[in-house]
Structure formats: structure tokens, C-alpha cells
Write a sequence for this structure.
């Protein structure tokens, strides 16, 4: 089983920065992509940023230019650097990993979520 452990959430003032980390442990043969989703109260979970195994990235329009997703393949870790934070970025941020095991079966796993609160 693959487990995702997130860290880095917290309280920050508007305009500030935070960096989220998500480390994957377990039997991963090949990672397809890693991503960060977020969910605000009363809203659906939405994609914030994704990075593929090849390094391609895509971002939600609302975070483009402010958030940067990156990964360390040697550590099976994905990061989300968040800058110029706004109160509307307040949400629980979830790490997501899509991967193949050694039998080339496809899996998708989620982290437990980390709360980011941006005060005005």
C-alpha cells in the first residue's frame, strides 16, 4: 500500500507564502503524476496543480503565477510553493498520486489533507 504524508499547512497572512510537502511511501513502480487539490468549505474539491512524471505541469487559473508545483523523484516527494496568498486560498489541501505498481496496475491515492488558512 502507498501512503501519502503531507506537511506544511498553517496560518499565514494575506500576501505571505507557504510550502506544502507530500511524501509517498510504499511500493510504487512508476508514478504517472502527482498533484495538489484543495477544498474550501461548501465547495467541491478542485485541482490546484499537477505535475506529470515527465515534468509537465498544469495549474488552475486561480493560482497561476502564484503557485509552483515541483517534485523530487529521488524522494517520491511533491511540493507546492504558494506565494502571494489570498484569503480565498483558504482550504484543505490534498495530495494526490497516480501510479502503477510492478504489475502495471493503476492506482490513485490521496493524502489526509492539510489546512491552509490565509487571514486578511
Amino acid at each position: 500500500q502507498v501512503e501519502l504524508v503531507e506537511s506544511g499547512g498553517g496560518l499565514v497572512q494575506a500576501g505571505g507564502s507557504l510550502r506544502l510537502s507530500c511524501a509517498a511511501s510504499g511500493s510504487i513502480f512508476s508514478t504517472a503524476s502527482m498533484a495538489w487539490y484543495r477544498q474550501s468549505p461548501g465547495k467541491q474539491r478542485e485541482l490546484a496543480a499537477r505535475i506529470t512524471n515527465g515534468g509537465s505541469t498544469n495549474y488552475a487559473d486561480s493560482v497561476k503565477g502564484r503557485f509552483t508545483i515541483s517534485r523530487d523523484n529521488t524522494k517520491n516527494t511533491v511540493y507546492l510553493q504558494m506565494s502571494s496568498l489570498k484569503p480565498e486560498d483558504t482550504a484543505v489541501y490534498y495530495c494526490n498520486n497516480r501510479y502503477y505498481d510492478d504489475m502495471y496496475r493503476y492506482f490513485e491515492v490521496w493524502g489526509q489533507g492539510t489546512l491552509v488558512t490565509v487571514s486578511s
User: Anything to note?
Assistant: The radius of gyration is 14 Å. The mean pLDDT is 94.
